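Before the break, one more example. Copy the sequence into your notebook; we will annotate it together after we see the structure.
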Amino acid sequence: MAQILAARGYADIVLLDIIEGFPQGKALDISESAPWVRTSVKVHGTNDWADTANSDVVVVTSGVPRKPGMTREDLLSVNAKIVRDVVGKAAQASPNATLVIFANPMDAMCHVALTTSGFPAARVVGQGGMLDTSRYRTFIAMETGASVKDVSAWVLGGHTEATMVPIVSNATVGGVPLGQLLAADRVKATVERTKRGGAEIVELLKTGSAFVAPAAATIEMVDSILLEEQRILPCCVKLDGQWGIKDAYVGAPVLLGAGGIQKIFEIPLADDEVAEMRKAGDAVKELVAATPAS
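Here is what the structure looks like once it is written out:
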């Protein structure tokens, strides 16, 4: 994330970690790429939250990564404690920041971040739908043989294999409905591959999880916030009645700009997709209820 953001050249960056020397080394490495990347932004590594003071955006990546055979839900207890500590310190150092939550299980960690920070819900947003949508669009392009640039498709709902909702009803390639380009069995296969997109990479790597696509997806959100691009993006947000879901962080199309979430769009969905969205909302509430309070 820091490397991608530094190359874009519009924002100074602070990397923070509890391990002494680690963020400093990463920051120095990225800084030393500047002469060839042609960026003059400052990249600073630190173990001190004071160095992050008055940040406009804080991307929370802290937590234990998934390992083969491990679900995002398995990470719940340990990562809730980590996120609670990180967000508390981040909010104290940067009380006007927008928090972009990356830690897993992301939907539940958004709730942890919201309650810990005391921020309005508009300034606590999760990235889950961005990554899952990127995978969905990639797989659609692979299946159809068309350019991924022409794919318009969304993944809403939760950020787990059981709760994400790849939307088929409004998916198009160059304006052509997906159902006209692929047989029903291939559409279903693409949806299922999307749901297992993260697990597929974990199984291939064996010693880690995805890096590049999650980073690119997250920095698109940072761009929209800091540059006030007002993009409509699939992000994890606290819903307030949309699709019959209330008080749960679920993926939805949002207008993202200065100050975070400016509007949530309740787009038309097929009946089965609405049902899946509601299941995702219920699942998130159950996960939040199971999250340790401290």
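The two ends are 29 Å apart (CA to CA). The chain has two domains: 2-128, 129-233+249-290. Try to locate both features in your own notes.
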